[in-house]
User: What shape does this take?
Amino acid sequence: MNKQAQAVIMLLFGGAILKASLSDLYLRYVKEGLRPFLIGAGLLLVAAAVLTLWYDLRGKAQAHGEHHHEPKVGWLLLLPVLGLLLVAPPALGSDAAGQAGTVLTAPGTDSDYPALPPGDPVDLGLLDYASRAVFDGGRSLTGRNLRLTGFVTPGPDGEPMLARMVMSCCAADGRPIKVALSGEVPAAVPADTWIQVVGTWTDRTAQDPVNDAKVPYLQVASWQEIAAPKQQYE
Amino acid sequence: MTAPEDVTERRDGAPGDDTDRTPAPPAPPDGPAPGRRVGSVEILAVLLVLLVVFRNPLAELVSAPRLQTWTTVFVSVLVQAVPFLVFGVVLSAVIAVFVPRSFWARALPRHPALAVPAAGLAGVVLPGCECGSVPIAGSLIRRGVTPAAALAFLLAAPAINPIVLTATAVAFPGNPEMVVARGVASLIVAVAMGWLWLRLGKAEWIKLPARPHEDGSRLKAFVAACRHDIMHAGGFLVVGAAAAATINVVVPERWLQTLADNEALSIIALAVLAVLLSICSEADAFVAASLSQFSLTSRLVFLVVGPMVDLKLIAMQTGVFGRRFSSRFAPATFVAAVLVGTGIGAVLL
Assistant: This one.
């Protein structure tokens, strides 16, 4: 591969990174906090590509015929370009959620759950709901109408569950948080559909067969389909 | 003037054991630009046109759920690594072009056995992912730093820095001793591997790829070093990301469940998993926390092995240091990390 081809690949790679980080595309793959670094890295890649081209074209005039073994493996950088610009795969969904165990792990020793904010129903994250339900015995949840948002994923018994992926760095470490549903269960909704459910806490729990962690239930009163949120990870 | 980069480059290895040196036809030493049949720019152009034309069939091809998960994980590993890769490449180009050789002689203790722990501790202050430290370590060796010290830095930098240790503390709120155990075990492995290299390592195992020699301005040399490392380390990063995504999708977590009950088995299982998953060192603590069915010691081993040996790193080390190096260094580091991690876990956890 000569320098011009390398420059074009760097330009495409940097451009793909820039395009993903300037739109909301990057949120499907990494945390929001990485954005400034992605933009910086994309700009540096583009700058390196432009300077390479400039030196190469200017150098042609002086015609120094050095020939180097340039890294062939660099061709592979076209794959992420292809992935970002042409395919742009969706955020992790029910397929990944079914593969891994729910992320609910034992809390710290001084787990103290403050009262829920006002609101009827009150919006609650899945992870927050699950840890309050399992580790706090639902104390802070009783008597409240709760609204949870997530995607539908088939549970081990075939019943639909509510799930969301929890990501700490990038989608490779994405782990699901699962909440089982009882009552007005959204039956016959295809997997990966985003829904919002309103319901109340119940002390029923199930066990995730993948890692034996507890999965709390939610007694559903109503539910509705919604569009996928901008930030799909929790 | 051009920086004298070639002093530590070794060209005496067996032919064909360098990864990107396929037996190319002998290059015309001088003269006008070599007349080639089909240039790489033309190949690239045709490839791009084909990709755009067949965009829809391609998207169709990866629409199966499992394949889609693979693509998502593959792309996200790369997107996550890009800032660290670019940062590492730029820093390594700065080391190669702008930092004089004499600096390293002054900055590190003269005796190699002392330079190793010093370099290991220097790794502590550099926050970053493992993708950045590979090109930096390569650059340090080029600039005359003793390989043992550069390797200690390579292992220590991603494993023990403030960001990684903070993440570990957040992931294990009930076990602050995990942070101490991780830091101590990782530093011991890094320094031990450096000293092991001093005793057993052979200089000819490390074969740094020939960097282009640029005449003219320092900026030109800087750009050339950046371009070369991005294409090289970046290409191998793609290989590693693809391997990690495959493991991520193919190995169901359920298999692990059966191993968790036996302590020895679970240590080995999590050590191997750390190699296969290739999770960024800033995130692996959260994954370890979610593997709650395993003992703390086996999860410590997961955290010690992961930043030092994983598929992505092995691919990049093969690219930057050569196959003869990585085929020896990676298994040795793996064994050292498992032993030290288990020992520290037995004492501290």
Observations:
- Chain A touches chain B through 83 residues (CB under 8 Å).
